[in-house]
Amino acid sequence: MPSASLPPSLVTLEDIRRAAAVLAGVIVRTPLLPSEELSERHGMPVWVKPEMLQRGGAFKLRGAYTFLAGLPADVRRRGVIAPSSGNHAQAVAMAARLFGVPCTVVMPETVPEAKRAGAQRLGARIELAGTTTAHRMTRAEEIARDEGGTLVPPYDHPVIIAGQGTTGLEIAEDLPDVATVLVPVGGGGLSAGVATAVKLLCPAARVIGVEPAGAPKLSRARAAGGPVTLDRTASIADGLMAVRVGTAPFAHHAAYLDDVVTVEDAPMRRGVRYLLDRMKLVAEPSGAIAVAALLEEMVPPGDGPTVLVLSGGNVEWSGLGTLLADAVE
Questions:
Q1: Active-site residue numbers?
Q2: Which fold has domain 13-58+157-326?
Q3: What is the 3-state secondary structure (H, E, C) of 129-162?
Q4: Residue 312 forms beta bridges with which residues?
Q5: pTM (two decimals)
Q6: Can you give the residue ranges of every domain in the chain?
Q7: What are 43-66's pLDDT values in tens digits?
Q8: Contact at 8 Å (CB) between 187 and 161?
């Protein structure tokens, strides 16, 4: 259960509302879409929050644009650097383009071509570095030191959390009687922001994080009482493969997140297929993980409206075909 004592450094509802004001007219206010089939199956209203319909194909623009908007103009003009597994890179590239400033993104050598091409189309300079978060961060810090520019953190920063928290703000405003929210967990920026906004506006609601079984960084952190670094990760959910949950997100999780569950790859494949077949939404595995958790009945049934946050849909067409072929009803 959430902690009763809150550290003073936590992002506030006012911070999230300020971020929403900055983002007005820039981002898409994604709708809540009802899922009649999931509602009938689970005996409660089920809605999805389709962030694949966001500019850039994922929720990440919310945090990236908020961060860039907060930089002094002379600092922003020197450019920005983004270490990212893919979606953050595209979001920072888009935000940099909107502000007319240079952008370099550092992506893993294993980055899906759809995510690499997306950042490139938006004008970013691409660098590849290793396969882990640490590899990307080290190279990004080197570029910032050698060339100047500001490093835009993917999740471990209060301004990023506030920007991502506008997702939860919209949920609470559009569905004030929400009872349960399922949200994906990678490095933790989205889940921290959503949990904060939802709990502060709808205190009785449950907020449950969902992470890959092959990258259980938050589950391990909660068991240990603080962030720990995983020895390895392995999952088809490439957007949720951080080896360590962020320090700032974890503080918000401790305060506001009710629980976390893990999902294997096979249910995520079925979630991708379900969303395409039943709701005509293209989701990457990371984006379908909350649907997978509900389909697998991994979350205790609630007694009111449930919202599933679909974090993104940046998937290669060839990869999507493979996911669909491998999915078993």
A1: 60, 311
A2: Rossmann fold (3.40.50)
A3: CCCCHHHHHHHHHHHHHHHCCEECCCCCCHHHHH
A4: 58
A5: 0.92
A6: 13-58+157-326, 61-151
A7: 999 999 999 999 999 999 999 999
A8: no
